[in-house]
Amino acid sequence: MFTMLLDPIAFTLGPLTVHWYGIVLGLAALSGLLIAVREGKRFGLSPDFFLDLMLFGVPSSIIAARLYYVAFKWGYYKDHLGEIFQIWNGGIAIYGALIGALVCGFFYIRAKGFDFWRIVDICAPSLLIGQMIGRWGNFINQEAYGGDVDRSFLSNTLHIPSFIVNQMNVNGTYHHPTFLYESLWSLLGLVILFVIRRRKFLREGELFFIYFIWYSIGRFFIEALRTDSLAFKGPAWLESLVNGLWSPMTTVFEQGYLNPAEGNIRISQLLALLIIIAGIVLIIVRRKMGLAKQRYTDPLINHKKKAETNETLVKEETETTKDDGKKEDNDRPV
Question: Is Transcription regulation found in the keyword set (predicted)?
Fold first, then answer.
């Protein structure tokens, strides 16, 4: 049967080679920007605010994602230093990208005078659609796939389109399209975020926490199918806990191969569990302590401009008081 695999190189311009991976990531960032701009208009934010945020955030997230991946693969990269910069060949970690984006976003948002949680709430759907589209870069590169499967499982059991099935044939062996599972999970999460963000019960920061919880639930179960997971050597009880939580999936799926030399616990699985717990706890604690006072639908306040306005009013009142004092002095009889 004739199958045609996708070429990871989109086109060349002289010495410049443009990879589909980079184009897909660019489309992911652009889609996230458009969604944020549209939602931001409801709160009086200009498109330039999000454009500048993206210009700072995207490079920061890519650098952090690469550093995160390289750090856990240092045993390989210490002998191949030149490959550290070859991100077009894959090898970036989404959790690392999120860390980079959040750190950069924190300082940018604070500098602009807004509440951090209010802005990341607005950006939460953008992050999710970026991940949803970005995963298709893995599809083109034939990476971040799962364990071995039969073609019939993909075509007849899961009813996956043939162009995806063909691309999951790596060196004669078919694999779980884990990129597709995660992309579809993100799509469902995007719909949920769109529905609940208009609800009055939602407090500041909670849409972002829900995004993180949702993504991490999917990542926990999908990560175990992969064969390229970053891992570490952990205690037996933790390994049993993680495997026990994943065990309901064994009725349909088998876990992907994990090299014992690299570890027995997948880092992304453990991190996903911690994020789920932390997200739930933060929502409850912030409500109990009264820290989440504003609602998602409340008007957005620019504290920087508010402070400047208050300072101007105080200055005007002071000048008016001085003028009144001078006027009273002039009106006094000699």
Answer: no
State the pLDDT at residue 244. Answer: 96
Nearest alpha-carbon partner for 163 in 54, 328, 2: 2
pLDDT tens digits for range 135-149: 999 999 898 899 999
> What's the confidence (pLDDT) of residue 31?
96
Q: How confident is the model at residue 329 (pLDDT cuts 50, 70, 90)?
A: low
- φ/ψ (deg, to 5) at 160: -80, 140
Classify the phi-psi angles of 290: left when phi > 0, otherwise alpha if psi is within -120 to 50, otherwise beta: left
Helices (H) and strands (E) counted in the chain, each on its own, are: 12, 7
Sequence-ordered alpha helix ranges (H) in 142-235: 151-152, 162-167, 178-196, 206-223
**CA pair distance 98, 157, nearest whole angstrom:** 34
Q: Are 138 and 324 in contact (CB under 8 A)?
A: no
Burial class (CB within 10 angstroms; exposed 0-12, middle 13-18, buried 19+) of 1: exposed
d(C-alpha 312, C-alpha 321), whole Å: 14
- DSSP E strands: which ranges in the chain? 9-13, 16-19, 148-149, 169-170, 173-175, 231-232, 265-266
- 272 pLDDT tier (thresholds 50, 70, 90): very high
Are the C-beta atoms of residues 134 and 187 closer than 8 Å to each other? no
pTM of the model: 0.86
Both tokens of 135, joined, read: 């995963």
Q: Which of 117, 300, 123, 116 is nearest to 203 (CA)?
A: 117
pLDDT tens digit string along 72-87?
888 888 888 888 888 7
Contact partners, residue 177, CB within 8 Å, separation at least 6: 139, 145, 146, 154, 160, 164, 167, 168
The binding site consists of: 135
DSSP 141: H
CA 88 to chain centre: 19
